[in-house]
Sequence to fold (294 residues):
Amino acid sequence: MPDQPWTIADAEDAYAEADLERTLEICELLLERNPDDADALYLMGEAMLELEEYEAAEEIFRDALGLEPEAGGLYNGLGVALFEQCRFDGARKALETALELDPRIAEARMYLGFFHERRGEAEQAEEQYRQAEGLDPEHFQMPAPLTIEQVQQSVELVIDRMPEQLRSYFSGIPWGIEDLPSTATLTRQQPPMSPLLTCLFEGEVRDPTRVVSPLDHAPAEIVLYCRNFEKTIRGPEDLPAALLNAMLVEMEHFLALDEAEVEALGLAELARQPALSPEMATLEQSVPPNGYLH
Fold:
């Protein structure tokens, strides 16, 4: 990076452009100049959250709180980092502190909703979601209600769009639909999987040195987490595209695919397909009358 007098505004611009590498580089330079720059630490923490480096984000937010102990945004970042590490009680405490310091932090409301939802506290979760949407409707919305039938129909639609070899592959795998991933499921690996996980291929990840052909290695089961899908869509018509994206990401991980294998299996082409939503527009909308938590 050229030698110039970088400012926090430059780091903010890089972050706004989703250039996380440049954000981190500028923040590191700012911290070399002033190790007590809490604003630079805050942006570094936010960038680490985007990169899913939650342990690093936690450490950065804690360092920043040592400098600015009354900053609600820092407690919010810490709460998010802890939640994503399945440290739920610590997350709740940090998020509630964030809102005590600044009740306008919509993300803290949303994550508190996630916390209450995992505890089965439907009314508290729904209230937090409503407040988050009221504070920042552009970035936070009430989860969109889904039925088991809509999820099943989406699976059938997505698989039907796949190349023949992938249709054959998925036809022999059992599917499960659950509300949310259990803490035991999330923490059976370290670092833990995100509590917002939407799709999981159960089984051991393929070892390319032992299983040469990717499609010779199949998961024991594919589990979809309905409540988490509800958080990623605006309505049932968006579910097939969200499901396809989740499946492609999980498949690439589970089968340990390299770039050539992604192309050979047609996954890259599949990802470039037009949105699947028109077919879902006609699905029966069977939504419980008392909110999305059911």
The beta strands are 175-178, 199-202, 221-225. The two ends are 52 Å apart (CA to CA). The chain has two domains: 8-102, 148-280.
